[in-house]
Design goal:
2 copies of one chain form a homodimer. With 276 residues, chain A is of the alpha/beta class. Chain A is built from 12 helices and 8 strands. In chain A, helix 9 links the parallel strand 6 (184-188) and strand 7. The longest helix of chain A has 22 residues, at 251-272.
Chain lengths: 276, 276
């Protein structure tokens, strides 16, 4: 999927919501426990409930790897289900991979070819040759960590070099030379709205994947104000606030309501930005 | 396994060799092709051939994830095989994970509890709360990326702050405050022997996992000269030079010969350092 197609979906859905599929076994509602694969049953219900209000789904591999190869099978079934039932949905494997070149090439094959994701999140620490193997796939995307939503982002990402340029800005600066806005997006946490505005100026055409709205406390309006560009340029993720909106039999209905509420807020922001 | 037990194995084996189990399907010898699980058959042969000369095995998850859930099942079988047949072997899951706290906790459960590895490699970019969830497991280890062996290490890891302290040194400085030498090791590439000596001074008691000997061009003697400490403190990894020493029916024999050659060099270094 290219950026124009993604923007088209954003206009059709009047939404730039990405739903994080991060299932935690202990939190699953009793309603899915009769199924053979509880996690898949849960994902399927969440996907069907929220698909009308979202343009992207983002399974985080950690929540599948806790179940080992069985969890990976659930991840594969989940992505295949989205691909088949919602072919225009953008699928991000939130894997935060990155290794030496010949190893990163294996990860790229795993997530783009084998799993069939549109995008994979990648960590920048190991530099250019750890990122480049992910770039050779037509219509596929690297989503590079720049400024993450967690408190630990302060430990290294804000370190300034002698020219007072912080590490996350250096990541943006270098990475925009490695890849075009058709190949790369950046992770910028919703918990840093001021910095998000600065990064938007450094990378005006790039999409940002913005986690941290909802359970982590980020503010959607603040993010949208400074982050929206001429093709929206934002995918804002919500996970826990949607997945666990209710633990009752109405969990999917409540997830849909939560997603709808966010979509309505996004619609308003898209109108303000004259994008719809 | 604690550091004293690991050092004991190093003295018994007269080796600090870690064998990287990074199987590439296209490179597998014809000899394993009659098996149902080619990759596992290959790993099993390599493990049995090299176990006498090694103290650690390090499967890199990328080489399994290219086969999706089936690859993960092979990874599980491989670790279980080592655990059962060679219970004193140190097993490192080379996964380079790292995410926000509640997600890193899932990775820790995946690699320590579910897979049963002794150690997992972790990327530092997301800071303290991305690393800490890996630290609460008795006898388990975080192997944190500090200075990697690839050329891309120059992109960010060498960036200096205003006090002229490079990023990889800041990672060492902070991380040694997060975790003791009983909980944490550092990845330091063999391709940077001078820097390895500096890092040894910053972290005298910590083990270093040193990739980059062999196919990547690092020099074992140079690394050992500056890296060995009073409990050895080094695990030097070799992957491709051992795994693909021969593509013939003698692949396991040639892998053993390659591992033996490295072990002999390590024995000499341990003698020079008066550790055996």
């Amino acid at each position: 999927m290219n950026s124009e197609q993604l923007f088209q979906q954003i206009r059709i859905k009047q939404s730039y919501l990405c739903v994080g599929l991060d299932p935690v076994r202990e939190k699953l509602p009793a309603a899915v426990m009769s199924s053979d694969d509880h996690v898949f049953a849960f994902n399927k219900a969440i996907i069907d409930a929220t698909a009308p209000y979202a343009v992207a789904f983002k399974p985080n591999t950690a929540f599948y790897e806790t179940d080992g190869s069985l969890g990976w099978a659930t991840l594969e079934k989940t992505v295949a289900y989205i691909r088949t039932k919602y072919p225009k949905m953008f699928v991000i494997a939130d894997a935060k991979r990155g290794d030496i070149g010949n190893t990163s090439a294996r990860y790229a094959a795993a997530f783009f070819n084998r799993l069939g994701a549109d995008a994979v999140t990648v960590a920048p620490y190991m530099g250019a040759d750890s990122v480049q193997p992910f770039l050779g796939f037509d219509g596929k995307w690297v989503v590079l960590l720049a400024l993450t939503s967690n408190t630990g982002s302060a430990d290294f990402q804000y370190i300034e070099n002698k020219e007072s340029l912080s590490l996350y800005k250096q990541v943006i600066q270098k990475a925009t030379q490695w890849a075009s806005p058709e190949q790369m997006m950046f992770v910028v946490g919703a918990t840093h709205p001021d910095e998000l505005g600065v990064i938007r100026q450094m990378a005006p055409e790039y999409f940002f994947l913005v986690p941290g709205v909802g359970a982590q406390g980020g503010d959607l309006d603040a993010v949208s104000n400074v982050g929206l560009n001429r093709r929206a340029g934002l995918l804002v993720n919500a996970s826990r606030s949607i997945l666990y909106a209710s633990s009752g039999t109405d969990f999917a209905q409540k997830a849909a309501e939560e997603a709808l509420m966010i979509q309505q807020q996004m619609k308003h922001q898209l109108e303000l930005a004259k994008l719809i």
